[in-house]
Amino acid sequence: MCGRYSISKKAREIGDHFRVIIPPDFQGQVYNAAPTQFLPVIAMDQPSHLQMFQWGLSAPWENFAGESAPVINARSESLREKKMFNSLLDTQRCIIPADGFFEWEKAGRIKQPWRFQLKNEDLFAFAGLFNQTRETDGSLRFSFSIITTRANSLLDGIHNRMPVILDRESHKKWFSETNWNKLEDILQPYPANKMNRFKVSPKVNSAAVNLPELILPWQDPNLTLF
Asked: Which of 61, 134, 189, 200 is the most buried (most CB within 10 A)?
């Protein structure tokens, strides 16, 4: 599962990295991206533009947005089997810019958040699917879901799933490839030796908090050395 992530770079850096036009109202520096928020997405039908879609996919057969709970993740192994995702695979793929994601380690009643990122701390993208649903006022709402795969060894003991991370070459393939077997080849766990992880502040637990300190290494102040 992927339920929180970050895209902490400034808008210009994001635009340069992905070679896209940035909407004027997007400033970047999202340290705690959470479901239902409107977040930057690059869709295959407009690959040169960054757009703001809502995290949480609505079923394509819904008459109006919000008729059922939004789907924030899609399992790579069953994309072709599930009607909701299969109907989007050919024409409604997207990538979601990011520079890290969070997962929680359970220790009794305590849940300790960890941050996962590339070793070079660079931007990357999640593989995703998007859809459009009509609001009750007649307007269109675009939403997306992040595709997940089995976890790599870096997530051992924390979670058994991770988001599909795409490098630059895989971005192009995700948008252009029509052979499903070849697409499956890129929907795999990202190499653990190219990533790192560290504990972060429990403040990330609140989706209302969006501070730079959320993506920095954290040590429990209650643990001291004598």
From this structure: 200
